[in-house]
Amino acid sequence: MAKRLSSLLGVCALCVLTPVMAQQFPFWERLLHDYGGKTDETPVPSMKMGNHMQMSLKGDAQPGDQQRAEAIVATAKKVVAHYADVNTALADGYKPFHPSGKMGEEVHYTSRHYAQLEKQHIDYDHPGSILYKRTPQGMQAVGVMYSAPQDSTPQQLNAIVPLSIATWHRHVDFCGAPRSAPFTEKWGPQAQFGPQGSIHTEQACSAAQGLWIPVVFGWMTHVYPNADDPSKVWAGMHMEMDADAGSDTPRS
Hints:
Elements: H1 2-24, H2 27-35, E1 46-49, E2 53-56, H3 65-82, H4 86-91, E3 94-97, E4 106-111, H5 112-118, E5 129-135, E6 138-148, H6 154-160, E7 169-176, H7 202-207, E8 211-215, E9 219-223
Antiparallel strand pairs: 1-2, 2-7, 3-4, 4-5, 5-6, 6-9, 7-8
C-alpha cells in the first residue's frame, strides 16, 4: 500500500511540475531538455569552438581512410545532383529546419525518416539532411549531413567517416530562455539565451532561470562534395559558428 501511495504521489508530482514547466518554457525547449544529452562529456577526443560547439579532433590516419572518404564524397556528389531541385527533396519528405529567409544562409532540409534510420545505420545514398544555400536564383544544393547518436564512441564515428579526414560537431551548453525573457535576450548580438547566447554554464543558466540543455542534438558531419577548395569538402574546422547569414562560410 505504501509503495502504491508513493507511486501515485510521484505521478501527481509530475502532473504539477509539467504544467509549470509548460508555462515557463516553449515546448521545443522542453523537448530538447527531455531528449537531449545530460552531459557534454564524451569519449570522443574533442575541443570547444566558441560557447556552444563541440568539435571532434583529427584522428591518426589509418590504411584505407582516403579511399573510404573518396567513396563517400562521390556518393554525396550524386545525392547533391539528384536533389539539385529543392522540390525533389520536399517530395521525398525533406523539410527545411528553421530557415531565416536571409540571402546566403545555409538551410538543413531534414528527413525525419532517414534521420531516424541514421541512428542505427548510415545509408550514404539517403542522408538525414541535404544542405541548401539560399541564392538569388533560389535554393542551391551544396552538401549533405550525416548524423550519429550523441553518446557515440570514436570508433562508431570513425566507422561512418574517417576521423582522420572528417570533423564531427555537436551543439552543446544551451540555455533555454524562459517565456518571460525579452526578445533581445533570446536573439541578436546581445542575446543571453539560445544557440548564440552568452550563457554557457549550468550555474549561469540556473541563475538566469533558464532551462539547461547540455547537448542539443547528436553528432553531425557535413560534406560539401563540389567545394572549389578541396580542404573545404569536409567543412570541419573551417566552420565559423558566428558567421552571419550573408557569409559564404558554411553554418550549422
